[in-house]
Amino acid sequence: MNIVLLFGGYTERDVSIMSAKEVESSLKRLGHKVTKIDISKEDFCYYSENNIDLIFNSLHGGIGENGIIQSVCELKSIPYTGSAVLASAIAMNKVLAKKVFNSMNINTANSLVSNINDIKKNEPMERPYVIKPIDGGSSLGVNIIKKDSNLDRLELSDKKILVETYVAGKEIAVAIIENHILGMIEIQHDEIFYDYKSKYKSSRTKYVIPKNIGAYQKELLESFSLSAHKILGCKGVTRADFIVPDEPSIQPVLLEINTLPGLTKHSLVPKIAQNNGINFDDLISMIIKDALI
Hints:
Layout: E1 2-7, H1 13-29, E2 33-38, E3 54-57, H2 68-76, H3 85-92, H4 94-103, E4 111-115, H5 116-121, E5 129-133, E6 143-145, E7 160-165, E8 170-177, E9 180-188, H6 196-200, E10 206-208, H7 215-232, E11 237-244, E12 253-258, H8 268-275, H9 280-291
Parallel strand pairs: 1-2, 1-3
Antiparallel strand pairs: 4-7, 5-6, 5-7, 8-9, 8-11, 9-10, 11-12
């Protein structure tokens, strides 16, 4: 097939470039013709749709993940990987997504919407709590406010931000593809949480198959992930991120669902696939197959 590989952009650019590098190599191994477009340098809106069989979306965040690129693909009537317009837009907005998840009785952290100026004037909730951009990714802009944290040192925009109760526990990611659970993985690291440094720069971060999780929590991890994927109408591969409390009787907490998870050498979904006997080329083939349905 003739496949256009979208990558780059302005948000999470480094991660997108790393993902695109791995995807391009895989597509070529699979026998496809690949044309790469860096959307920060070329206007995809005016790119001719002639002789394009598929758009492989390797963008992360911003217009690549919030429904805009998906809308362009729809207007051009070109199949594309990942979720459709509405699912992408809702999943990218953590506040909207939480409302949908809560309507399905999917457990999420208690939260509210505020801005950094108001938070500095009046603590929104008892510490510790977490503040994060409503539409960010790769853990960029996420801060844990502990008892000794100095809010005056925070340098955040005055945009609205999400404030959540801090939940302690194991960090677990669940991958879903073709409306089925692909598998899950536990992230062990030295940082306060699984931040950008832990994801892409640390050599000490470990990825292990979860073992110390009881049947109750494991069942909920799978059911919450599938429910979130389906209620948003997601397609292709998604990744649901959780905190699993150490007390086995407490429900896992869904943090978010990612509709365009990373496909780098360090990314979680390829690791989960590999742990379940699916190599990278097979994973890419599954993503393509789902996009063409």
